[in-house]
Batch of 2 targets.
Target 1
Amino acid sequence: DIVLSLGDICKSYNRGKPNAVEVLRGVDLSVQAGELVALVAPSGAGKSTLLHIAGLLDTADTGTVTLAGEDIAKQSERRRTALRRRDVGFIYQFHHLLPEFSAAENIVLPQLANGVPDQGAGTRAAHLLDLVGLSHRSAHRPAELSGGEQQRVAFCRALANDPKILLADEPTGNLDPSTSDQVFDALMTLVRDGRLAGVIATHNLELAARMDRIVRLEEGRLIEVTAP
Ligand code: ADP
Ligand code: ADP
């Protein structure tokens, strides 16, 4: 059951200008439900570009993106936005939680925006917070949480609407190593619980080694580093 498939993706910035950069030069990647792929790449190699194309936030110059069985190039802009909201969960290095709302409310709000009734949204928020060991922090605002706790809440928020794929850009990048380990465990629990597909960009090779597969972005192409 392939959730995301990228075929021969090419992407340049400032094409035809003196400052043109060819970032992706024929990237292929398939991710199955329940599979967690580590994306490792030196800074500037095009990790964010790749994740944004995979998550329908940006478009490739050429190549195909298939998400949850739909060929993205054939969809309208409106349909792409709907697919992104329904099927993709994003996690960034910095959590971007809403400071005036509690942890639980930060997880409830995206569900309400998606038409989930109050009660169901609250129940799901409580379930997700429980999975990452933060039930006792549900009424706290972000400023009252540690960095690691904030990031765990951000994971729950990304999964609030039960997406099919999780895309994460250095999700533990600004945490100290011991917090980072703990927070990564929470991420794994959420992914396994939801049988999610995931592409997790990380510089941390120990964390990468705990995923199902490692791919490396090098000179615009994806190279398989290990097979299970
Ligand atoms: P990474 O996430 O691996 O650090 P990015 O995907 O952010 O890499 O960027 C890859 C390359 O593309 C970098 O050289 C960066 O400077 C360039 N780049 C990224 N976004 C733009 C943009 N909007 N316009 C021009 N160049 C860009
Ligand atoms: P830890 O105990 O995990 O080291 P801290 O409480 O020291 O966590 O906070 C970690 C980081 O999160 C700090 O850089 C802090 O400035 C930042 N931070 C704290 N509250 C917020 C907030 N509401 N929004 C954004 N960043 C915050």
Note: Residues 47 and 192 are 24 Å apart (CA to CA).
Target 2
Amino acid sequence: MTVIAIDGPAAAGKGTLSRLIADAYGFHHLDTGLTYRAVAKAMIDAGLPFDNEAVAVRIARSIELAGLDRTVLSAHEIGEAASKIAVMPKLRKALVEAQRAFSRRNPGTVLDGRDIGTVVCPDAAAKLYVTASPEVRASRRYEEIVHNGGDTDFETVLADIRKRDARDMDRADSPLKPADNAYLIDTSEMSIEAAFQAAKTHIDAVL
Ligand code: C5P
């Protein structure tokens, strides 16, 4: 049971990097952001308020990890709702249990999120913290939205990124921060290929 934990803020390149690493090592991959997004979508669809913790926990326990698909969970409003419900401790506990079960079920896993190295898998064999400046992350997110035919402006995207960072970093339960022994990768001025090589060199040294 070998776990590679990858944490960091939104739009730092964590998702792409996690997939590349999972492919390179032949590991299973769980994007834990999707677990929060799936609960958020179910709550939006049912018209539930985002502070209904009892129902959120019930939905969390019914989620099928294998069926999670970013394409149906990528909407901006789902991401916003996910970061709002993610402050509820009992919901986090239910999702963390499912995420740990995933890591135990498979011989090798890459888990990416906000609290993998600190809370979900503190004993992970390798821990990475992937970040980039808010401006760089906002400009990547902006390009992606425009590329997909969306209509927005850079300042709005930057304000969203800052709001999301504040919610993730300032919450009382499992705030986003690098684990003590995490290897830091700042992708602000790095290609994804260079980030992958840096990650692989670190992982090979510690596995
Ligand atoms: O990674 P993604 O942006 O899809 O995650 C959506 C939201 O879910 C994040 O903004 C964060 O608030 C929450 N999340 C979390 N812990 C994780 C993964 C995601 O709190 N391990």
Note: The chain has a mean pLDDT of 97.
